[in-house]
Write a structure and sequence with these properties.
Blueprint lengths: L6 E5 L11 H9 L2 E4 L2 H11 L6 E4 L5 H13 L3 E5 L12 H9 L3 E5 L4 H9 L6 E6 L4 H10 L6 E6 L4 H12 L4 E6 L7 E6 H8 L7 E5 L11 H13 L4 H12 L3 H14 L2
Parallel strand pairs: 1-4, 1-5, 2-3, 2-4, 6-7
Antiparallel strand pairs: 7-10, 8-9, 8-10
Helix pairs in contact: 3-4, 6-7, 7-8, 9-10, 9-11, 10-11
């Protein structure tokens, strides 16, 4: 295999605090032949803050022109250019432009490397207080309610911790959908404005977070949700009944309590219902 002389560099940029910029970022900005930026105005602010004067050509590379501009950048790469890709915050390709260019560069045997930098996903995970040994990133949920519920149901039994990005004006609706599918007792953390002046991490059961979000939330949002609980065979009938009773004593109707426990435990609602009926028949 013959590798082309160009290099594609994916550079992580600060998600809030400019002082989090990796030292290599300034050097790459100063020396790249081409800088592809999600927002050229933000790039200008970034370079000014870092005291860097780019020597290379600056082009925009965002969702609206990603498909059209990718061939142009690949042509520059195959011609020997060093192309630096930066997005508004965090690592390119992670819910940001970049995937198409990386795939196209790999197809042409172009070397692809990265300048690691801040990540909202990893920062939120570390601060959440939830298990981080295994996790999966789900990006943004669909905007339409039905599609959002369908997407959440796909991971209703996922044991790994889940990470989502969400817009502040859709946060309450997203949390309410999570509570409906996962159970309002599922633990979660809403991480807001990470590394910025008004950074906030709100932890608690989904049901409580829904009420909190109803007061209005601003800023960049990352939501971390606990994975599903024990599967069939790992949680005995007595424990299922106990959890239903706890919810009933807290004021939930039996039907809702059974549904919530089923989601928590990762078992069919019929399994929980049968356990509750059997316990009632057996008596105290």
């Amino acid at each position: 295999m013959t590798v082309t002389p160009g290099t594609l560099v994916l550079a992580g940029t600060p998600i809030g605090d400019i002082e989090d910029a990796p030292p290599r970022l300034a050097a790459e900005l100063a020396t790249a032949d081409v800088i592809a930026a999600e927002d050229t105005r933000r790039l200008r602010r970034l370079t000014q803050a870092l005291g860097v004067q780019p020597a290379g050509r600056v082009v925009s590379y965002f969702e609206g022109n990603e498909s059209a501009r990718t061939p142009e950048l690949v042509e520059a790469l195959t011609g020997g250019a060093r192309v630096l890709l930066v997005t508004d915050a965090g690592m390119p390709s992670v819910s940001d432009p970049g995937y198409r260019l990386v795939a196209a560069a790999v197809e042409k045997d172009v070397r692809v490397t990265a300048v690691p930098g801040p990540s909202a996903v990893l920062t939120a995970l570390a601060l959440s207080g939830l298990p981080v040994d295994r996790f999966c990133f789900e990006g943004f949920l669909p905007r339409k309610a039905g599609e959002r519920l369908s997407r959440l149901r796909e991971v209703a039994e996922e044991r790994r911790t889940l990470v989502y990005f969400e817009a502040p004006h859709r946060l309450q609706a997203a949390l309410a959908a999570m509570a409906e599918v996962f159970g309002d007792g599922r633990r979660a953390a809403v991480c807001r404005e990470l590394t910025k002046t008004y950074e906030e991490v709100r932890r608690g059961p989904l049901g409580e977070l829904v009420e909190w979000a109803g007061q209005g939330v601003r800023g960049e949002i990352t939501v971390v949700v606990e994975g599903a609980g024990e599967k069939v065979g790992e949680l005995d009938a007595a424990e299922l009944v106990r959890r239903v009773r706890v919810r009933e004593e807290a004021g939930e109707r039996r039907k809702e309590a059974i549904a919530a426990v089923a989601v928590e435990a990762g078992v069919p609602k019929r399994e929980v219902f049968d356990a509750v009926v059997a316990a009632k028949t057996a008596g105290p």
